[in-house]
Amino acid sequence: MSDAIIVINAGSTSVKFAAYGEGDTSESPPLLCHGQVDGMQGDPRFVVRNATGEPLDRHEWGEGHAIDHAAALRFVIIWLEANLASKKVAAAGHRVVLGGARFEAPALIEGDVLDYLESLAIMEPSHQPFNVKGARALAEAFPGLPQVACFDSSFHRTMPEAAQHYALPKDVRDAGARHWGYHGLSYEYISRQIPEFAP
Asked: What residue ranges define each of the domains in the chain, with the CATH number in brackets?
């Protein structure tokens, strides 16, 4: 049995995921499949596709049957382990918008990490709480599964310090108001891919 890693983007009404197999350390791990559970608040649907985008499976819970993040993620993990040729999910990575002042790079989710990340929801209430909820739900459903949080804000922490601050009073900046930046994981990927197409 070989290992798979699942990457998760938990939102308010959906959970998007991709599963990757073991690969040569010199290259990106191979994509096994990707999909999502959406409509979680009233008409949940699961769809999964292979690496080339061809449908593999789908499931519907039925209209009026809401599910939470824990139920969605439990379904995804069980489906993956039952359908991916002797693969066991060995770890999970989560897209999280803000790492705050504490995290400039990916962080192992342990101790008070989720509590700290949840405290940042006041600065980004449309995604942060749900990103954290997904990680918390997975930890409850699969205790002991290693999880890592990867932050959109990390990419932007490489800007000069002056560019990360707004022209605000120091006490407001000290309370956490700063230019955190968004979509950093996408920008990081794009910046790594550009040399392949435009050396």
From this structure: 2-197 (3.30.420.40)
